[in-house]
Amino acid sequence: MTPERAEIVGLQALAWLVAEEELLPVFLGASGADLAQLRASAGDPAVLASVLDFLLMDDSWVQSFAAEAGCRPEELRLARAVLPGAEEMNWT
Length: 92
Known about the structure:
Layout lengths: L2 H17 L4 H8 L3 H6 L4 H11 L3 H11 L4 H9 L10
Helix pairs in contact: 1-4, 1-6, 4-6
């Protein structure tokens, strides 16, 4: 997956999340952001990565997004791997 495609998937995920009235407040609470901050930073790959991180926490969210976006659920994981912060942590 290219970085450009990963950002597109991230933007689609963000749009989906914003439309989810019950889930959006959960994301905002977990991220510490408010809606204005989210709008202002929507093009930031790190923010898109955080949206994908959040959605990837629950298979039902991944499935719902993928069905609506017309993509394979794996695309979220692939996009997340390309965006900033996906480097594997080394705990040693």
